[in-house]
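Practice problem 4.
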């Protein structure tokens, strides 16, 4: 199971990265991990995005970090609100940065840094306001496969 791919400490590091990234933004970041992805990774990430109801955020500023651990696939998917604000190659730049860590077998650092990079852009375009509410959970979600 993908849940066993990370130690409790690594899961906490990733969750803390999400919480830290969301401190300065109304944006929402989620991480979803599975073992396998049998279809196109972006198509499957879009399905997970919808399943997690990430498209229901008020400002459409959710970002999903999806990983299929055993199949070595991952995708970053931003909702319409954030996608309309960031440069065209923004998500690819984060993916390349993360991939450099993954190649060194440092998945936790790669994910955490990718989350921070996304959070920085979210904070720029969707700054935190006093009445902001945390619309989505910060904990990692896990698939059944």
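Answer key:
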């Amino acid at each position: 199971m993908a849940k066993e791919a990370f130690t409790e400490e690594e899961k906490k590091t990733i969750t803390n990265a999400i919480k830290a990234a969301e401190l300065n933004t109304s944006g929402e970041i989620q991480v979803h991990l599975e073992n396998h992805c049998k279809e196109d990774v972006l198509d499957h990430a879009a399905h997970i995005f919808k399943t997690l109801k990430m498209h229901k955020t008020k400002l459409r500023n959710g970002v999903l970090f999806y990983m299929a651990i055993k199949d070595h696939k991952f995708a970053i998917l931003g909702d319409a609100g954030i996608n309309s604000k960031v440069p065209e190659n923004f998500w690819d730049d984060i993916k390349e940065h993360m991939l450099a860590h993954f190649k060194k077998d440092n998945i936790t650092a790669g994910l955490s840094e990718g989350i921070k990079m996304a959070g920085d852009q979210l904070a720029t375009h969707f700054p935190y306001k006093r009445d902001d509410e945390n619309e989505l959970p910060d904990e990692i979600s896990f698939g059944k496969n």
